[in-house]
Each structure stands twice: as structure tokens, then as C-alpha cells.
């Protein structure tokens, strides 16, 4: 599973110094530790006395320890420091609740791929605050931005200090570099191993479905459109669940039952998308090689709800939800239900999987919003798997630019 890792460096023994390396998912029994803020009190209590710095990196971040120690040496350890590779929004973004809309570039937040660091005095003060504050938002949507906001604290705390040695692309003097969010785990899983369910409704049959057909539908071997009406021209299948304006829980659970039935070819993986999701199935099939379909796997862009107060994580629906057959069958046999047909399916699934002990696995290559809603310097955009929404964009052009591989071999 992709988890952010923490490196904690003990600066007082630099010469033979070996950092203490912690894996966030092994820190405690609480699955919400990935959102870092809930983990700060534990980190502070356990390592706050012995360490000078905490450095947070991704699984695929490479660290040159001697260079990193040299960089950290420039900053006084008794002061509050928040260090990293600074990125910013070019325009006000929905995923950041349109923060700093007058001047989006004014607020910097770290690219997690390059790693970012907190000095111990800052980490201790934050840990103290977490235990007393009520966080403004119940939702964890874009962790790096939300952590930077929390640290900045309306101007009372430090801003991110940009450190050129925190790198994503290799160049001279880098203390960190980044490889890829799409590791090579072997040959892609075959087309027949992925069953694609597209959720649509009558009013979008003419508007959104043609975009799917013009872009990524050709890369799917097994694909069905699920609607509130049967329309032979698409063709769509009606699951007998009326269309709802808000969530699609009833429809999604009907898709699960169909996926497990004999009505459709048996596949290892189920991908559920919206009719305005843009996705690269070849890249997805490369990523799926890294996971074992015999395990209960839930994969996509992970959001959190109420994580500081022991809430739950969920895979956000618009970027695409990928489930192994084992996960679907465990969910269906658990008796977990929608409290109403129009409940938000992605959140209900997150709550169900959390109660079943199925981890919600994150990949930053899935995106709930449009490319324009992200900082263009983010490394996760380079081999993106999905984007979502057609607002004010040409979705076919977005697909061609961001998701279509030019040198595509005809894969199995």
C-alpha cells in the first residue's frame, strides 16, 4: 500500500548518525495516521526529546542523508521551521476551498514527493495544539495544503521556507529526489481482468457518454454503462435504482451485486467511475500489477472525514474507485448498507471498509478534480491515471494532453 513515510533524524549524532525511520501505517492501530496531524502527539511524546527534525517523505522519495543533514544544519534547531519544495496554486482551486483567491500564488505548500521537514519546537507546539483545537474542516482533501494552512495559522505560525535542495527532479546538490508514483511492478494486468462500471443517467447520455466513447472506452474490454433508464443507443443498463441528485449509494451497491453475479464476465478488479471521469486504463493496469487481487484492496484518491476525532478514510468517487473482487464480496456479504439510495456512495464504502478492517489505499495519480485545479508543478500530474469534471474545459483535449500515451503498444 502506498503510505507516506516519516524519517526522523537525530542530529546530535551526525557522524555515525542513523535516522530512525518510521512507517506511518505502522505507527499505531489508527488507520487515520496517514493524515499526519492525528499522529503528531504520539510522535512528539515518543521522539520529541531525542530528535531535532522530523522529515516526511513518500515511499518513492530518495534521500541522500549527508546532503540532508547539511541542509538542516543551516537552520537553528531551537526555532520553528517548516521546510520543503514550495509549490503554489496558479488560480483559486476548488480542492483548496478557493483559499487565497485574490492571490493564489501567495501561499506556498510543500510537494510531498520532495519531502518536507518540521523542526522539533514546531512539531511539539502543533502536537500540543491538536489536542486542544477543533480543526476547522471535518474533511481531509488535500493533505499537503491543509497541513501548510494549519501550520501557518492565519499568519501566527511559520510559512513554508523554500529549500532548493528538496528536489523532485535530480540536479546538483539535491538532498532528496523522486522516482515515480507509478512503479514498474511487471507487466500490466490484462484488459480482461478489469471490469469497468460507468455511472450515468438519462440527462447525460448525449452530453457526457460521447466523451467516454471518444477517449478511453476503447481501452476497456468489459465495460457497462449504468443508468436510470435503458437506452439501447449507448447501450445503458437500468439497475432499477432511480437517479439521485446527490449520492449514488443505491446504484453502486447494485453494481456490486451485478459484478459478483453470473450476468457479467468474471474479473479480478472492478473500476467504478462517473460519466465525467477521464481515465487512462493502460496506466491503471500497470499500477494494478503492484497489488494482489486475492486481497481485499480498495484503491484510488483517499480523502478523510473527521480524522482528528477518529473518523474514517474513503476513496473519492469522481477520480475512480478500484476494488478487488475480494473487497467487493466481503463488503456485500458483511451486510453493510446504504442508509438511503442517495447517500454518498464513496463515504459509505469508506465507513464500511473501515469497520471491516480493509485499508483504504491511496494513489496520488487519481484526481477528483480537473488538471487546472492542481499546482502545475506537482509531480503526480506527470503520469496521472484520472481526472474528473468537464466544467469549462474541453475534456477530449484534456484527455489527449494528460492521459493519452503516444507510444501505446496494442496491449493484451
TrEMBL record:
InterPro entries from the UniProt entry: Fringe-like_glycosylTrfase
Membrane-topology annotation of the record: Single-pass membrane protein; Single-pass type II membrane protein
Cellular compartments annotated: Endomembrane system; Membrane
Signal peptide: none
Annotated Gene3D superfamilies: 3.90.550.50
Keywords, ordered alphabetically: Glycosyltransferase, Membrane, Signal-anchor, Transferase, Transmembrane, Transmembrane helix
Any one Gene Ontology cellular component term annotated for this protein: membrane
Domain Fringe-like glycosyltransferase stretches: 49-143, 188-393
Keyword GTP-binding: no
Major localization class: membrane
GO molecular function: glycosyltransferase activity
Similarity comment: Belongs to the glycosyltransferase 31 family.
Protein name: Beta 3-glucosyltransferase b
Protein species of origin: Seriola lalandi dorsalis
